[in-house]
Structure formats: C-alpha cells, structure tokens
C-alpha cells in the first residue's frame, strides 16, 4: 500500500486558493454596496431645504451681546458657549428626531429669573418674548 500524504495536491491547492480569493472579493464588494446603501439612507434623513441665514452665528452672538449689555443684572454669560450649545442641539441631526432633551444645556445657560413686577408688560428674554 502506497504511503498517503496529508498534503493537498497542487491542483487542490489552486482550487482552494481560487475559491478563497473569490469569497474575499465577494465580501469586499458586498461591504462596499452595504456602505453605499447605508450612506444613502443617512442622506435621505438630512434637511434638504434652503437652510437659515448665512450669518446665523453672527446674528445669535450679536443679539446675545446686545441683550447682555442692556441687562447687566444677568451677570456674566458666555455667548460663545450659548452658541455652541445651540449648534450641539440641532446641527447635523435628523429634524424629526430632535427632542426637548437636545435643548436642556441651552436652556440651563440662558435661563433667567424674571421678577414678578416685570410681568406687568411684555418681557423680553434672550430669544423669546414673555407675555403675561
């Protein structure tokens, strides 16, 4: 009886190598297709409208500094931090998935106590008007 070898014959090695390369190429192509599909799904959720004012940051910062100059009793407020929290709340997010929780830090930074005697007339806050 001839001695049997545990090694694969060259023909079998060639077939296994070819099948292995084919499977590897198939996995790479499938990964690319899946990545492109997922990226296109992400883009469909993004806002497609005209957007807002081109100088939105300057507008918000200008109004913030102006409001703080007119209301020195508010103390020190960091307008740049307020702008950062505003952008953190909404920037590059699906408009349909933004919740009140996204605004919590912004509300904490802009919150102010309004004395009762000021509510006798419309009262201006940093970003809104309070009407009694």
From TrEMBL:
Q: Which GO terms describe its biological process?
A: positive regulation of B cell proliferation
Its recorded reaction(s) are: NAD(+) + H2O = ADP-D-ribose + nicotinamide + H(+)
Q: Ribonucleoprotein as a keyword?
A: no
List the membrane topology term(s): Single-pass type II membrane protein
Q: Which residues cross the membrane?
A: 14-38
Where in the cell?
Membrane
Q: Which Pfam families match?
A: Rib_hydrolayse
Q: Name one GO cellular component term.
A: plasma membrane
Main localization (coarse): membrane
> Which Enzyme Commission number(s) are on file for it?
2.4.99.20, 3.2.2.6
Under the subunit heading, UniProt states: Homodimer.
The Swiss-Prot or TrEMBL record describes its family as follows:
Belongs to the ADP-ribosyl cyclase family.
Q: What is this protein called?
A: ADP-ribosyl cyclase/cyclic ADP-ribose hydrolase 1
């Amino acid at each position: 009886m001839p001695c049997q070898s545990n090694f694969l014959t060259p023909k079998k090695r060639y077939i296994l190598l070819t099948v292995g390369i084919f499977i590897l190429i198939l996995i790479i192509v499938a990964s690319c297709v899946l990545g492109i599909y997922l990226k296109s799904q992400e883009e469909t959720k993004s806002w497609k409208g005209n957007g807002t004012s081109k100088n939105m940051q300057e507008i918000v910062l200008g109004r913030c500094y102006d409001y703080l100059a007119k209301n020195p009793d508010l103390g020190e407020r960091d307008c740049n931090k307020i702008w950062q929290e505003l952008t953190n709340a909404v920037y590059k997010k699906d408009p349909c998935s933004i919740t009140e929780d996204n605004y919590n830090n912004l509300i904490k930074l802009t919150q102010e106590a309004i004395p009762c005697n000021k509510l006798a007339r419309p009262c201006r806050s940093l970003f809104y008007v309070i009407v009694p």
